[in-house]
User: Which sequence fits this backbone?
């Protein structure tokens, strides 16, 4: 059985299909039609479908942006090179942000940092996103009525700085995208570069993580037990991380070093949600060119070039890989 098909079977049999099954809310939208054509056989994650519908029903152009409510917990995972610069990169690292590949075994107890669905802004339709300011800070602040002296302005500035910075690692590819279509196309382009597939044509799968936090909470650390682990295709993967911004912006990158991807089914052991939670995870197999000051090394008691460093993808972020066969 294909690994991604096994992923779907695991979700269906455990009742946790919300992490990957398409949601009727986004059915028929241009973004949904694009997804079906670009990723045949991969249902749109419910988290993404919900954000697409929110972008249609609740325009961020008329709703106030609050940085404290739109700051994904996993921003600290993005930079593996020089670990310095914006506050996004220097934020305190929550427990459970990183783990070792050896921990991905059924029965392993893990502390996991999770986030609420309320922390991610809506995905704008592509034709709207193309008309909304992005790269110029003053234009963004004016369009969304954000005071230049506010915490929200600082958050927007940090995201723009991170998006505009050059790759921090040799061989790394990166891009920031403002629509679902641009996100899928960027991931495809990154995987085509260096692909061994004839004619440079690749067929992608995509995975996301379910939210495990009540809407009233932004972030939460909770104890889980690994219930199932499914290996996903490929040894090169693109992570597209939801950024804090008035509307959905994805920071997509691929390090240029080998990686391994998994779908991990987690069961709470601390009295939280009784339903299993499915998380997409990526393990970086070669960290030899990472900044020695990266917090993952201190947290895991390892060093550059040591054991593989893994992390879960945050809610509504996307992990892409190349299918073994179309």
Assistant:
């Amino acid at each position: 059985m294909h690994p991604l098909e096994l992923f779907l079977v695991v979700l269906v049999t455990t009742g946790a299909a919300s992490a990957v099954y398409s949601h009727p809310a986004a059915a028929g939208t241009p973004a949904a039609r694009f997804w079906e054509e670009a990723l045949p056989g991969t249902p749109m994650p419910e988290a993404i479908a919900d954000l697409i519908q929110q972008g249609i029903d609740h325009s961020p152009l008329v709703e106030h942006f609050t940085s404290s409510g739109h700051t994904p917990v996993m921003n600290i995972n993005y930079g593996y090179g020089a670990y310095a610069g914006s506050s996004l990169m220097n934020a305190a690292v929550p427990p459970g942000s990183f783990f070792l590949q050896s921990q991905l075994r059924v029965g392993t107890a893990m502390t996991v940092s999770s986030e609420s669905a309320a922390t991610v802004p809506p995905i704008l339709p592509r034709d709207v996103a193309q008309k909304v300011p992005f790269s110029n800070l003053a234009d963004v602040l004016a369009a969304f009525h954000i005071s230049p002296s506010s915490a929200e302005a600082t958050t927007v500035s940090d995201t723009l700085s991170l998006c505009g910075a050059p790759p921090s690692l040799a061989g790394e590819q990166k891009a920031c995208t403002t629509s679902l279509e641009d996100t899928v196309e960027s991931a495809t382009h990154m995987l085509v570069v260096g692909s061994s597939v004839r004619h440079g044509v690749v067929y992608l799968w995509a995975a996301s993580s379910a939210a495990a936090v009540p809407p009233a909470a932004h972030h939460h650390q909770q104890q889980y037990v690994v219930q199932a682990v499914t290996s996903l295709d490929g040894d090169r993967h693109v992570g597209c991380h939801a950024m804090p911004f008035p509307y959905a912006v994805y920071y997509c990158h691929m390090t240029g070093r080998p990686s391994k991807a998994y779908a991990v089914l987690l069961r709470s052991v601390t009295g939280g949600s009784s339903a299993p939670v499915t998380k997409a995870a990526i393990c970086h197999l070669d960290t030899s060119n990472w900044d020695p000051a990266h917090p993952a090394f201190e947290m895991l008691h390892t060093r550059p070039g040591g054991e593989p460093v893994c992390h879960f993808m945050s809610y509504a972020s996307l992990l892409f890989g190349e299918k073994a066969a179309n």
